[in-house]
Write a structure and sequence with these properties.
Elements: E1 2-4, E2 7-8, E3 11-12, E4 25-28, E5 36-39, E6 49-53, E7 68-69, E8 76-81, E9 88-93, E10 105-108, E11 111-112, E12 122-125, E13 131-137, E14 140-141, E15 145-147, E16 154-157, E17 161-165, E18 170-177, E19 184-190, E20 193-194, E21 197-198, E22 211-214, E23 220-225, E24 235-242, E25 254-259, E26 262-268, E27 273-279, E28 291-294, E29 297-299, E30 306-310, E31 316-321, E32 324-325, E33 329-330, E34 338-341, E35 345-349, E36 354-361, E37 368-374, E38 377-378, E39 381-382, E40 395-398, E41 404-409, E42 419-426, E43 438-443, E44 446-451, E45 458-463, E46 474-478, E47 481-482, E48 492-495, E49 501-507, E50 510-514, E51 518-520, H1 525-571, H2 585-593, E52 605-606, E53 618-619
Parallel strand pairs: 17-25, 35-43
Antiparallel strand pairs: 1-6, 2-3, 4-5, 6-7, 8-9, 9-12, 10-11, 10-13, 13-14, 13-15, 16-18, 18-23, 19-24, 20-21, 22-23, 24-25, 26-27, 27-30, 28-29, 28-31, 31-32, 31-33, 34-36, 36-41, 37-42, 38-39, 40-41, 42-43, 44-45, 45-48, 46-47, 46-49, 49-50, 49-51, 52-53
Length: 624
């Protein structure tokens, strides 16, 4: 029994095998003689005729008989003038009459209009009821329209729903609008609201370190969530507040569905083959490129979500999208080559010890002859970590059974942040080196400070660059001494204004993994340096000012003396005599005594006299 919508010369395609319907089609029945085809997440391209066909051991139903024609429509709000002057009619319309009698919900500026009369497809508005209106039916809403004018409050999401892989990163985007004379004062993304109380995702502990807000203009916003988990499968909404109005929290947002990859195996015994399908619980929003692995080795030529292989008892297969892989499955039976890692990724502290584990499997009649861990491979050449100089004395291999292995790395360094893989070889087969392993990220501890909600208080956060794999118990220190309060056993610490001191954080059981101290309310070394620099600059400025003032004063004094001398010279006779034979016995004697010494030249001598002396003497003296 199958449902189909494509037939060409009698060749019929089962909807379950159609890539356009992957993850969206289900068959149901209540008796042996009825069938119901369920299609989820309807698209406009689904607007075709659908038929049912069955086959017995003797006859079969044809494919020409008419079936059921499906028309997929969307909701639109149409605005028309009402009969009463000034009023406006809104109609929630569709391109076809809906089969089920619906109940409509109307929204104004993102908030539901709570009136009994709004449970119809019509809404009559008074002239003062300006705003952005939309209608909703079974959680599917129309694009909002402005009533009176073209510029009003609006939030428009890029996607109504998104399907993304567990462990990947997703972007949920929207654009918004408000009146030109308004200013946006607050923007938040949220997925929890209770009676109007909204929790910003950045303040939600479940999303710590995984959420970012981005924008390209003043009227758009993108929520980015990293390392997706299945618990993230909820509806996300955006809200903004301007200086006059705010967008409500009831208007539908974007529904995120987080799925993982699974390989489904369908045996084709007639042709001796196995059909493999890389499936998800929902259709991935971004068109993916698929990668296939056989016994841990990459199959280069395969990029489709479906793959047909020969029946081999030893072979195992896995598919991957965006470096996220499915569990390994056996092509035949349940016993084949396989390596399964305990963690796809691990976050550990610098200086600590980490265990990276896996289990492996092979046929019962085979024996594992070689087992190694590695993180370097080039064209199939693998380096055993025990032989790597970077890990000398820091690496150990452990096992509890014949089919498990644990890599232990001690004294972790930031350079250890790479992908680690396990490989085994049996007497008949070997596990490849292409299959993804466990990615290790090594981080340290940092104390970050943010203002608390209560005035004057401060929040301290013991943060890491990744979420620690082992749920740690935090220890806080003040001035080097541990705080023993029960409330300090978390990554958060709230301080009162009087709680001055030097704070640091650590992890219980890891004595050497302690963050640098962060000073709260105390002068830090940086403060002292800044103050010292300021004082030095002030002193330098004062010294320069004093020096400049002294130079100016000295220059002025010298200028005054020169002006006085020049004046006196002008008022009296100038006497310039050549006095080489000057009767200065002592000087002449000294000159005679120094004939054999170097000659000393006195270019100019100013012989000072009192002001009462009528003729000052300025003489040029040349001493041989």
């Amino acid at each position: 029994m199958i449902w189909f919508n494509k037939w060409d010369s009698g060749v019929i395609t089962d909807l379950k095998q159609d890539p356009e319907y992957t993850g969206r089609v289900e068959y149901h029945k209540t008796t042996d003689k009825d069938s119901t085809r369920r299609i989820k997440d309807l698209r406009e391209s689904d607007s075709v005729e659908y038929k049912f066909r069955f086959r017995t051991n003797r006859v079969e139903w044809g494919y020409s008989f008419p079936g059921t024609t499906l028309t997929v429509t969307d909701l639109q709000v149409k605005v028309t003038p009402a009969t009463e002057k000034g009023k406006v009619n809104l109609t929630c319309s569709t391109t076809c009459s809906l089969a089920d009698k619906p109940t409509y919900i109307w929204y104004k500026n993102g908030q539901p209009v709570i009136k009994q009369t709004t449970l119809t497809s019509y809404l009559i508005l008074d002239p003062e009821d300006r705003g952005r209106y939309s209608c909703d039916l079974e959680d599917l809403h129309s694009p909002p329209v402005c009533v009176v004018g073209q510029n009003c409050l609006n939030v428009s999401y890029t996607h109504e729903s998104i399907c993304a892989l567990k462990g990947s990163t997703v972007n949920i985007s929207c654009t918004f609008n408000h009146l030109k004379n308004q200013t946006v004062t607050n923007m938040t993304w949220f997925n929890k609201w209770d009676s109007g109380v909204i929790t910003d995702l950045k303040q939600d502990p479940e999303y710590t370190g995984r959420v970012e807000y981005h924008k390209t203009t003043d009227k758009d916003s993108t929520l980015r969530i990293k390392d997706l988990r299945e618990s993230d499968s909820v509806e996300y909404k955006f809200r903004f507040i301007s200086n006059r109005v705010e967008w409500g929290y009831s208007f539908p947002g974007t529904i995120l569905t987080v799925t993982d990859l699974q390989v489904k195996v369908i045996n084709d015994t007639e042709n001796g083959k196995v059909n493999l399908t890389c499936s998800t619980t929902c259709s991935l929003t971004d068109k993916p490129t698929y990668i296939w692995y056989k016994n841990g080795q990459l199959i280069d030529e395969l990029i489709s979500h479906q793959h047909s292989v020969k029946r081999q008892f030893t072979d195992s297969y896995s598919c991957s999208v965006l470096d996220l892989r499915s569990p390994v499955v056996c092509a035949v039976g349940k016993n084949c080559l396989n390596v399964s890692y305990t963690h796809e990724s691990i976050c550990a502290l610098k200086g600590s010890t980490v265990n990276i584990s896996c289990t492996f499997n092979h046929l019962k009649n085979q024996t594992a002859t070689n087992m190694i861990w590695f993180n370097k491979w080039d064209s199939g050449v693998i380096t055993d970590l025990k032989q790597d100089p970077e890990y000398t004395g820091r690496v150990e291999y452990h096992k509890t059974t014949d089919k498990d292995s644990t890599l232990r790395i001690k004294d972790l360094r930031e350079s250890d942040s790479v992908e680690y893989k396990f490989r085994f070889i049996t007497n008949k087969a070997e596990w490849g080196y292409s299959f993804p392993g466990t990615t290790l990220t090594v981080t340290d501890l940092q104390v970050k400070v943010t203002p608390a909600t209560e005035k004057g208080k401060v929040n301290l956060t013991c943060s890491t660059t990744c979420s620690l794999t082992d749920k740690p118990t935090y220890i806080w220190y003040k001035n080097g001494q541990p705080l023993t309060k029960q409330t300090t056993l978390t990554s958060y610490l709230i301080l009162d204004p009087e709680d001055r001191g030097r704070y640091s954080c650590g992890i219980k059981g890891l004595k050497d993994s302690v963050s640098h101290e962060f000073s709260v309310g105390e002068p830090t070394f940086v403060n002292y340096v800044v103050v010292g620099i300021i004082v030095a600059v002030v002193i330098l400025i004062l010294c320069l000012s004093g020096f400049i003032w002294f130079r100016k004063k000295t220059s002025k004094s010298t200028s005054d003396r020169k002006d006085t001398a020049v004046t006196e010279q002008r008022d009296s006779s100038h006497v310039y005599d050549n006095i080489s034979d000057m009767v200065l016995t002592s000087t002449a004697a000294q000159t005679t005594d120094t004939d054999n010494q170097d000659h000393h030249h006195y270019d100019r001598v100013h012989l000072c006299s009192s002001k009462k002396q009528e003729v000052p003497l300025y003489s040029i003296i040349q001493l041989p």
